[in-house]
Write a structure and sequence with these properties.
mainly beta, 29 strands, 30% strand
Length: 498
């Protein structure tokens, strides 16, 4: 696997915030720190002896998007359903790629949805998956696959330990990776919305241990270990600029008016829960949009629903609070693309600020699109409109979220895939062969070329070796997945040849 370098990492800075110059009157040369979390400004063409990084740079608040877009790890397209995740999870299989065990190779961590033993689908979404009540059955743990020098992924269930009486996940919706306990090893927080109701389920919080395992630590390291909330959106970042990673999750509680919960890290990985403002939303990300050094919250809505129709930014007051009245609305597309399941940011035009990318779908997730919004500075924005990925027929009327035109983008990642000096978009969807692995190549000036997954292979390495099944049943299951992939790619090639 080839290392994909991110030439301009997701910036926490405004270009105007660095007014210093070198002793000879020239401008400092901007580069990325070794750990990818801040900019370093050097004089003398990068000569270490004349470095002005101490005088002319300042580390800003780190966000989870910087970890998932780390330029220092090998990036590849992970298997969509590696064994045994096909058995463990009913659907979902969202993932994060990072070097979890610090051996220099990229690993992949998956979360997903339990396989209930009382499935009785009613209504139009996962809230009616089990007859309108809570789904029952064994709840799976996350699945960690360790990478090695040969590109092989090895399933390592022995490294994840959950001693709770009711262990595992109901519906793992957000996988928030960060070093919460500050031991140099990445940990992870799982926002769990629950399957079967919209009441939520208690979350999971895995902290690294000295013996190389990750222990579910809610009882010892959360102020409210069994806190239940429908947290469809979640993000991690240092929202109070104290040097450790906090967690922010959404809630839609009309009775109390609670929109955001902030779990504030005390520096040891212990998270204290408090309300912190915000506006009702489904998608959430943390990023410094105005370049003031503080992480703001980007929110995405169900724009066709009047009670939860805010898509935009709520600004950080500098203390990790997000007053709902201190906000900026962003352009909506509620008529056809009013569902916003995900949002992320990157500097797409190399101007030093963060531009915004929304994942969009229609009512009941029909159709799939991307919206790209340019950051003009001074809290001004320009909508570059909708980039359709999959469009349903105009006369198609869905009856359930689990419809044939649901190919929504769950995660948006950023890399300079074609190595031309600007940031491209890598799109992933755990439940769609159509959109999983799509790429938007940045052509400059907010023009993008859409590459279907089979064409995107040119830019995204897919040389992993999935865990080998051992039984005949396991072999048959893996072969069925490979056959499905081959059939889909053949169908795409036929369409492109027409």
């Amino acid at each position: 696997m080839k290392k994909l370098f991110l030439l301009l990492i997701l910036s926490f800075f405004s270009a105007q915030s660095f007014g210093g110059s070198c002793p000879d009157g020239s401008e400092p040369v901007k580069s990325v720190s070794a750990d990818g979390t801040y900019y370093v400004y050097n004089c003398g063409g990068g000569n270490e002896q004349t470095s002005s990084s101490t005088a002319n740079s300042k580390a800003k608040a780190v966000a989870g998007i910087d970890i998932e877009n780390d330029p220092n790890i090998d990036f590849f397209k992970p298997p969509q359903k590696p064994y045994p995740t096909g058995k463990l999870y009913w659907f979902g299989r969202m993932w994060q790629m990072a070097d979890f065990n610090k051996d220099g190779y990229s690993d992949v961590l998956y979360i997903g949805t339990m396989n209930p033993n009382n499935v009785d689908s009613i209504g139009e979404d996962t809230g009616g998956a089990c007859g309108g009540g809570a789904c029952k059955g064994n709840k799976p743990l996350p699945s960690l696959f360790l990478g090695d020098a040969k590109g092989k992924l090895t399933y390592a269930p022995e490294l994840l330990i959950d001693k709770r009486e009711d262990s595992g996940m109901s519906l793992g919706r957000q996988l928030l990776v960060a070093d919460y306990n500050n031991d140099g090893i990445l940990d992870f927080y799982i926002a769990d919305t629950a399957v079967g109701t919209h009441n939520g389920f208690r979350d999971s919080y895995f902290l690294s241990q000295p013996n190389g395992t990750w222990l579910e630590s809610s009882k010892t390291h959360l102020s409210h270990s069994n806190f239940v909330v429908f947290d469809h959106g979640g993000a991690t970042g240092d929202i109070d600029n104290d040097g450790d990673m906090d967690v922010v999750i959404t809630e839609t509680n009309w009775k109390t008016g609670t929109a955001l919960w902030c779990l504030i890290n005390d520096g040891t990985g212990f998270l204290n829960k408090r309300k912190c403002g915000g506006i009702f939303s489904f998608a959430l990300e943390l990023a410094d949009i105005d370049g003031d050094g503080y992480l703001d919250v980007l929110l995405g809505a169900h724009e066709h629903e009047q009670s939860i129709d805010f898509t935009g930014i709520v600004w950080n007051d500098g203390r990790g609070n997000f007053n709902k009245h201190n906000n900026t609305r962003l352009p909506q597309h509620k008529k056809k693309w009013g569902t916003v399941p995900e949002v992320s940011v990157a500097d797409l035009d190399n101007d030093g600020d963060l531009d915004i990318v929304y994942s969009r779908a229609g009512v009941l997730y029909v159709g799939t699109a991307i919206q790209i919004i340019e950051n003009l500075g001074h809290k001004k924005f320009k909508d570059h409109g909708i980039f359709p990925l999959v469009e349903a027929p105009d006369d198609y009327i869905p009856t359930h979220e689990g419809n044939e035109w649901n190919d929504f983008i769950e995660d948006i990642r950023f890399r300079d895939l074609d190595k031309d000096g600007d940031i491209d978009l890598y799109l992933s969807s755990s439940m769609s062969r159509k959109t999983d692995g799509m790429v938007l190549l940045n052509q400059g000036d907010f023009a993008f070329e859409l590459l279907l997954p089979n064409i995107a292979k040119k830019y995204v390495t897919i040389d992993y070796k999935a865990p080998a099944p051992v039984s005949e049943e396991q072999k048959a299951e893996e072969q069925a997945v490979l056959d499905e992939i081959a059939a889909f790619e053949a169908e795409l090639e036929a369409e492109l040849g027409q």
